[in-house]
Amino acid sequence: MHNDRTIRKFTSSGGTVVYKLPVEAFPNHITNCYLVLTDPITLIDAASGQEASNASMLDCFARLREEFGERVALPDVKRLIVTHGHIDHFGGLHFVVEQSGAEIGIHELDMSVVRHFNERLVVSTKNLHIFLERAGVGQEGVAKLLEMNKWSKDLFRARPVDFTFDEGLLSGSPFELYHAPGHCPGQVCIRLDDILFSADHVLSHITPNQSPEFIVRYTGLGHYMSALKKVRAIPGIRVALGGHEDAIDDLAARVDASIAFHDARLEKTLNLCREPVTVAEVSRDLFGERKGYHVLLAFLETGAHMEYLYERGHLAVVNVDEVDVVYNPVLKYQKQ
Q1: Alpha helix positions (H), the chain
Q2: What is the pTM of this model?
Q3: In terms of C-beta density within 10 A (0-12 exposed, 13-18 middle, 19 or more buried), how is residue 312 classed?
Q4: Using alpha carbons only, what angle is made at residue 140 by residues 279 and 150, rounded to the nearest 5 degrees?
Q5: Alpha-carbon distance 192 to 169, whole Å?
Q6: Closest CA to 149 of 177, 171, 130, 169
Q7: Can you state the angle between helices 251-271 and 221-232, rounded to 10 degrees?
Q8: Hey, what CATH topology would domain 8-110+159-264 get?
């Protein structure tokens, strides 16, 4: 991932000033939070909430005053909008609220990530366990990957949110919301005049990691691709500001490139399934040898693409007799 640590100023066609605050959510992992000088002042995303992340956010506000002469501090923020329920975007909301008393809003499909954090983690981990066994990962590998998946369990304490939303105009604000699921169930892109805050849905250099909808509803490659096309059709966008990386000057071209990337990966995945194969086998062919958490990310990305192909009839499960009699067997897929 490309990290840009520069604070940048943008002004919408309606005259609203926006600052990109590059907060180091985790070591060498920059989350772009956006300070929007609306009335009330709005912060989009809150980074991870780790001590170093919170210090990085305060440093961004200090630099904002030094570099731009902007007389605004974190306590001036009165509204926090979370673009999606991933820890590097919502984990810092406790810190923001403690500093400012801001009201917190998040899409209704991601609300329970904040309000019922542990429950969502336990349930999704159970589904992940089933997925990994079906993918052909051995017991030892499954245990290691499940432990990795729980890395964030001690990073956040659940709390209520103040308001939720779906799509359309956000009451009492100049923002228009577009539900863009796939990478996360409740992810939204947010329009402000000719600026689009594209969250992790559209990024300048990479496409966000995908995972099967089997694990968590409203993820999956199908939702992601459909939402890309919806966002591409938003008229009048001059610049898109992602949750990571750089500003995007040509949103349509970047969306087209993201779709083409996944179309190519789908074709490659399908060609790897000429003989009966498991998700784990295809993942190794797609990504080679991976280490640590990247092993899990590779399995999820592969699973999302094979799920997409299977649901559309391009792949079939060919060990049906075994599936019929064995509890949660390894699934073997073949191109149709």
Answers
A1: 51-68, 87-90, 93-100, 111-115, 117-135, 139-149, 221-232, 251-271, 279-287, 293-311, 320-325
A2: 0.96
A3: exposed
A4: 85
A5: 10
A6: 130
A7: 150
A8: Metallo-beta-lactamase; Chain A (3.60.15)
CB 185 within 8 A of CB 216: yes
Round the CA-based radius of gyration of the chain to a whole number and report it.
21
Tell me the Ramachandran region of residue 193: left when phi exceeds 0, alpha when psi lies from -120 to 50, beta otherwise. Answer: left
Q: Is 28 left (phi over 0), alpha (psi -120 to 50) or beta?
A: left
Hey, what are 188's tokens? 């939204």
Between CA 80 and CA 164 the distance in angstroms is: 11
What is the CA 172 to chain-centroid distance, rounded? 26
DSSP designation for 329: P
Distance, C-alpha 286 to centroid of its chain: 22
SS3 20: strand
Give per-residue pLDDT as tens, 306-324.
999 999 999 999 999 999 9
Cα separation values, 43 from 57, 78, 79, 100, 141, Å: 11, 8, 6, 11, 40
* Angle ∠(21,85,175) on CA atoms, nearest 5: 60
> Residue holding tokens 């969306």?
255
pLDDT digits (tens, 9 = 90+) for 87-128: 999 999 999 999 999 999 999 999 999 999 999 999 999 999
DSSP single-letter state for residue 80? E
User: What residues have CB less than 8 Å from 111, skipping those under 6 apart?
Assistant: 161, 164, 186
Output DSSP code: residue 288: -
Phi–psi pair at 105, nearest 5 degrees: -125, 145
Domain with CATH 3.60.15.10 in the chain: 8-110+159-264
The answer to whether 35 touches 63, Cβ cutoff 8 Å, is no
